[in-house]
Amino acid sequence: MATAVPMYGRRGKVLESGDSRAWRPSEARDFGASGGAFPECAVVQFPHGMGWDHGDGDASAPVTLGVDFETLCGTAAAKAFAERRSTPEYDGFLRHVDRCAEIVGEYGDWTRVASTGGALRGAVAVRRVSGIDPNTVEASFLLGEGEPVVVEDGGRNWASWTMDDFKLELDSFFVRCNDRAPARRSEEGPLQRTHQLAFRDYVDYVHRRDGDGCSPRSFDRERVPFYANGLRAFSESDSAETLAKAFPRPYFARECDQTDALVASITSELGKRLRFDEHISETLAKGVSKSLDKVFCGPRGAITRLHFDAGDAHGYLGQVVGRKLFVFFPPSDGDKLGVIQNDPTHALIDPLDPDFERFPRFCDAQPHACILAPGEVVLNPRRWWHYAVSLDSSVTVMRNFYTVNTNAEALVEMFVSSAAGTMKDSSGQLGPRAATL
Ligand SMILES: O=C(O)CCC(=O)C(=O)O
Ligand SMILES: [Fe+2]
Questions:
Q1: Rg (CA), the chain
Q2: Ligand of minimum distance to the alpha carbon of 292
Q3: How many domains, the chain?
Q4: E strands of 46-200, at which residues?
Q5: Bridge partner list, 177
Q6: Which residues surround ligand 2, an ion (CB under 5 A)?
Q7: What range defines the domain where residue 237 resides?
Q8: Is the bond preceding 216 in cis, omega lying within 30 degrees of 0?
Q9: How far away, in angstroms, is 309 Cα from ligand 1 center?
Q10: In this protein, which residues make up the domain named JmjC (predicted)?
Q11: Count of CB atoms within 10 A of residue 22's CB?
């Protein structure tokens, strides 16, 4: 008898979602009466049992060439990590390192001037505060255009984990990493390369690559680092609860992160109007909330190119391991940064190595820069452009959030489109109710 096979879009989404628990066929009966294969499932399959081992042995599993999917992915990743390939932004970062090294001299520490040297000369130092009153955060930093701020004790209730603590905890969690982040709809220069592997193997790669010390000479100048960015470890890993306990919401965000309350009222309102059963409302609420907490792990030189966060979201980014250089530009600088036409939340300027000939208006843009150390959290108001690069092997915990007074509308929109998607998913096409949203 055929097993209950999840519908298209709900199975084998390993490549898209990074969820290694997604359904994949593993027994003959999974292929159903038609015997057809599932092209979207990344596992070796044989339609109509072709090539199946019908001998004496166990005929229940598809032939897997003796290796499982995870192993195959890990091998491909290791090969890509060893390839000699770079990207314009990694080369730009290395030029910045060299300019900073020139400033401090042979025996100086280039990271001391990483936020003030080279192209960042003239950058405004991001304001630093500590022990702030959570009730003042919205008015001081989020209303109007807002202003980024480093909360030096922002991670005071966080665990001080090392990268190896993350490795132990996340272990076999299957993660995606890539050499150009974030992904863009269109790419100038080399296309983004993406690989997947177990988190423990990724951490081994980071250790191997970075070694000790971070002198300009110790950078691998031929191989761009792969960055494990936007990991949904808070929601999709078996360690979600442990992580939530180790890295609770920072104290200063207690009042201004109103996302949970907003999500609750939006789902209940939407549920009433669309006559959802409770289950759909809950699935929606969880799905949206889940997507907001992320982990970023990478070697020195792992870069997030210039962008602002989609969905009109505010964000906070906290360092748990290593230091990270952030460069911000105010929303009003957008037209000076080489915004990508069909990708308006992304910009082409490299803040560390700008091409003034191509983007002459960049001369008038005002960078704001900071180096974030472990335990510090930077608040990133909506629509502020930002660029980030790891100065050490790094782990960052990040969350996007919403407040009633500033960006709640965008959250509503996100729900409406996500609700339409959910209805589309479960009926195979856009249902009549979703179509009228
Ligand atoms: O690499 C980082 O820490 C920045 C991440 C970020 O801004 C984002 O993914 O939206
Ligand atoms: Fe961002």
A1: 23
A2: 1
A3: 2
A4: 124-125, 127-129, 149-151, 174-178, 194-198
A5: 195
A6: 309
A7: 87-413
A8: no
A9: 9
A10: 269-418
A11: 18
